[in-house]
Amino acid sequence: MFVRALSMEEGRKIQRITRTAKNPVKLRRAIVVMMSAQGQSVPDITSLMQVSADYVRDVIHAFNEQGFGALDPKWSGGRQPTISQATRERICLIAKTVPSDWGVTGHSTWSLRTLAEHLAKAKVVVSISREHLRRILRSEGVGWQTTTTWKASNDPDFLAKMQRILALYDYAPQDGRVVCVDEFGPLNLMPRKGKSWRPRGSPARLRATYNRTSGVMHMLAALDLATGKILYRIRKRKRWMEFLSFLKTLRARWPGERLYVITDNFSPHKHPNVREWATANDVDLVFLPTYSSWLNWIESEFAALRYFALNGTDHRTHTEQNAAIAGHIRWRNQRCGPKTGFATDSPIRTWTSYAAKAA
């Protein structure tokens, strides 16, 4: 028996499959069809392919009836699961709780072994291996994850303050400019972990030290949304006097414009002397809601500064470290542009109430 006569196009296609197929089952079936189309008999194909005659006949019959679709393997999915879907869901429910909820003491979290023992003891399953349990959890989207924290805002005016800040980000005031101000630090001298391109298995090494003998510095920085540039000063302390001095620097840089300074609730920012000077010098201090530093656009710039200028370094003096920071900011300011589109796709844009809890 032989496969049906193939057209020239079908011949080219079957030849292409024998050259490019990645699946071994599909490749083997395509070779059987091509050999049969070339006039080789079932015994010849059986001898050359080291397969049974029944296999060759089945492939030929299937191709004659179904065409090229017969070449694709049809996986049956294996044995039916021995644990029902309802039981799998209960296993995942238990895994997402803490052991003490089920009277299991001595553990604050489940290991695969303790979870398997509890499931058998509670008669959820008769017995289950750790590997089977791991596969069930993984298939149901339950993974081993690190616990994270969430600091909720307790500001009763959260939404109003957030909406005002978003409005300043979205629509630049006609009578002035928006500047995001914050402190970065403390800048101490220590080896900082980082990432770099290295041969596999040969990470860069930094000295281990617990000595902090050179004190710390603090950076006061401002992000001008109109240009995207960062202005900064590095000082030994970050009291209200340093903050006021920095505001005076910003005021001198943009005379005649009202400054909308977005800042957090750090006590020096709210000092009476700072407020009095701001009122007298056409500076509007726009305070973030409490515990909402993520609304300050400059925070993302600090993350980049830490990643590119500090991580992976081991500066021995503040002069050396300050020079590294200055070099990064100069590089950045030469390539920046106006800041637009803050969190445009974020759910915060549609909030009508604030749920002060972890999500």
TrEMBL record:
InterPro entries registered for this protein in UniProt: Homeodomain-like_sf, RNaseH-like_sf, RNaseH_sf, Tc1-like_DDE_dom, Transpos_IS630-like
Pfam families: DDE_3, HTH_32
Domain of life of the organism encoding this protein: Bacteria
Entry's transmembrane regions: none
Residue ranges of every copy of the Tc1-like transposase DDE domain listed in the record: 177-312
NCBIfam families with a match to the protein in the record: transpos_IS630
UniProt-recorded name of the protein: IS630 family transposase
Source species taxonomy: Bacteria, Bacillati, Actinomycetota, Actinomycetes, Streptosporangiales
